[in-house]
Design goal:
Layout: E1 4-12, E2 15-23, E3 26-35, H1 49-65, E4 74-84, E5 87-94
Parallel strand pairs: 3-4
Antiparallel strand pairs: 1-2, 2-3, 4-5
Amino acid sequence: MRFRVVERGFRFGRGEIDVIARDGPTLVFVEVKTRTDPDLGFPEEAVTPSKRRQIRKVALGYLLEHPDLFDVPCRFDVVAVEFRSDNPPLIRHFRDAF
């Protein structure tokens, strides 16, 4: 699967979406979470219900600014990155996360 990045760091109001990409015909809103300390839990756990609501609002703002995309299928993904001192980063992609 190859994504074509459309925009990075899109801001609307007080919120931001890290990456907006196309996956074929689908518009994908991607939240990227990172951790360097395993004691803080898994990065994906930081995408709380409140954070999901905020991301949805920002995604709607993006669609309002791009009305030609309003009927395009959309989904929300999460990319979790764990930086580990002695190994390469561990990256997990949660497709259609919420």
